[in-house]
DNA sequence: AATTAGCACTCATCGAAATGGAGTGCTAAC
DNA sequence: GTTAGCACTCCATTTCGATGAGTGCTAATT
């Protein structure tokens, strides 16, 4: 569909624009080493590319900038994955060499590194418990009326909540129930916990304990309560270094959006694994219609667990970011498996 | 030192400036209801106030704006604490009426509300475990080589870490040690844990278990490892609504600073309780030399636990914010005690 | 003696007009 | 098919004068 020459020119324009953030003229392309045609020829091609919707012109007498469609073509067909530079690789190693003693540390760190290496904003979703299995469940009484419920997954993931023990229920009864739950639920994946509770446990329980229904519903709530994954954000202020967001209002709408965890999770939904690039208006949220979002999932034992992502201007260093995300998501996977091996 | 009239005028200027963010002229003061003098008189007083260092002039033919010293006088002597408005109080009630099942929820929520009600940035430090006592300690094995250590405090605060079990140490031995620790350490304040470990436990342990030293050092690290309080940040993007930060570079240095948890904790250090106001250059960090930080501590059973704070421009609504922080810090205290009562 | 009206002066801000220059589209030559 | 040349467009920047808010000082007023 595009001639070789057109692809070269498109590539050159996008490369230049990513570097300079300013409309690219025919002359400057011609002066690059890799395109050996005269400005006039390039102008003709540029006019064609514009007609195809791959480029646009801010105003009549300006150079061209890539359109969303242009970036899309670039990402799909032209971009070269530089791989991860030695420097960056080394930084990653040293970072991860630090001893971490909970996964929040690993993931949070990953977010920090990502934003530092890219100068964009990184968003990382912690692992979903959904696909993990229950390892241990426990109640620890704090005083007469409240207790801490602790849930441990086979991945070492720990959740805890404070619950209030209803009147008229003894700690003894509670403990009996907890023991039974551990017996029956250990090894059960979280998404099955609810149904197993009802099918296998409800009956058996009613024999042992009074008030068992109250207790059961309480614990059911406790265990199955929505475990929304934690969101780690880093380098949000990097957005302000981008010339496209020097307008405070634009910056504000993006940074405001970044503060709403709900929206961020929404952004990451429906990512079936692998690396995904959403450019400009391809994103659902209006606030980031001038941004691109690149996401990758990281996994443990084949199960996709969570997502890491980079948000930047549409004029983003796609090649570098894609390589980096690719590298890092695998690194996290290795990290996790080494940890739990 | 200041005449009654000067105080009135200073108060009027600061009030106006806080509202408008623009230099205040003599005429506009004179037109307010509360100061009944002619512009000329007010001009004379303004000149005096400037000489005293309480006001300054951006340029010769502009109105006056308060200096740091001016704000300081205002906060110390003039500001009226409006109390918390009905609307705000109602919002606070509804927010806290939501059921929370871990303290992170309560504190995080507090940060959100604060930033929403004030339109400034809120920074909240979670409770330090320092002053709480150990309630329960437990190891849950995940696989052959690693286990999750869970530490519960009497406040319901839960910490967890993943540890790797050294070669040649059996899970049985580990459990013996853990049992002993629970026996001896329950009820001991965290800051004493380390010394108790050495004085009371080390000896006794050596009788029961081999390799006990290895285990002990591991667990000691685990329990006493630096528990730095969590930092909750909310409404950072509100900074961008302030006209003083419409300059992207200024905004960036502030927002960048806000991303560094270490710095934030530093900011909050050495606050002996009560409400504190740091204005402009009174703050140690250069990044917020154009900001004011108001902090308050919240406590539980008389023990000051953590800190809540509001960061805004020096041109901040001191009265409103101080009232609000005062109110909310007490609210959190009530909340916590009701929870654990 | 304190207060105020009057007035000359300062200086940031705003808009209009002038200038410069980067880049295009088109035509004609190679 | 490619390229040199040229007229044209339009943004960005600068310049300049007008505007007006606000001051400081002096002299009049209470």
UniProtKB/TrEMBL annotation, chains A, B:
InterPro entries found in the cross-reference section: GAF-like_dom_sf, HrcA, HrcA_C, WH-like_DNA-bd_sf, WH_DNA-bd_sf, WHTH_HrcA_DNA-bd, WHTH_transcript_rep_HrcA_IDD
Heat-inducible transcription repressor HrcA C-terminal domain sequence ranges: 105-322
Domain Winged helix-turn-helix transcription repressor HrcA DNA-binding positions: 1-72
Keywords (A to Z) from UniProt: Repressor, Stress response, Transcription, Transcription regulation
Annotated Pfam families: HrcA (PF01628), WHD_HrcA (PF03444)
PANTHER family according to UniProt: HEAT-INDUCIBLE TRANSCRIPTION REPRESSOR HRCA
Chain's role: Negative regulator of class I heat shock genes (grpE-dnaK-dnaJ and groELS operons). Prevents heat-shock induction of these operons.
Stated name of the protein: Heat-inducible transcription repressor HrcA
Organism: Cohnella luojiensis
